[in-house]
Sequence to fold (242 residues):
Amino acid sequence: MTEVIYMEEWRGDESEQNPNYIQTFDANITKRGETFVVLDKTAFYPLGGGQPSDTGLIEWEGGESKVTEVLKKVEIRHFVDSVPETDRVQGILDWEKRFAHMKMHTAQHVLSSVVFKMFNAKTAGNQIHADHSRVDFQPIKFTEEDLANVEEGCNEIITRSVPVHVYEEERPVLEEKMTDQRYILDMIPKSIPRLRVVDILGVDICPCAGTHVKNTSELGKVHMLERRSKGKDIDRIVYELL
Ligand SMILES: [Zn+2]
Fold:
């Protein structure tokens, strides 16, 4: 099993590095394919949950290779343009892109929470990109005024500089804590007794395996780009961060 660095807990202790911000790491190759390697630990995020795969480099003594995609099936595969022969490598994330994804993903939690509180509409899907992202809500038909209120609600939270903690929680404890958006928890199989949660303190708590910033102040400003109907009672919101 690969140890996943960014999954580690962080509860706001500024003397401890937040694991989402680790950009380089040392690792050993534990398996080689024709076009991929498996590592004993990684900070690369694999495609999933609406967040794109990280890209970057792996370096070793005397060489380097591009990491073009990271996919998790039964194992986490780092696809590379050349497979190193040596076992000891250093991983280096394309940080600009990853940090943009972290901001967008955290903004998605804020946006989903605001829309749920204002309109009781659920998040039916989402896709993060570095420059813009989208969330589909159901059941809802937003007016222009609704969108302006949602944008204002998001930016009010952002400017309050709310800490974002990440930790594991027992399912029954999380059931007590999740007063809003309980449907997210209900979609996760009951057989999973312990969940990794993202806790935007006092704003929103939900299970998530993605990467996030450590404080909402890092998000800048949410700006709505577009509203589009995706069906009878589904509306898509496209947003950017300024
Ligand atoms: Zn998340």
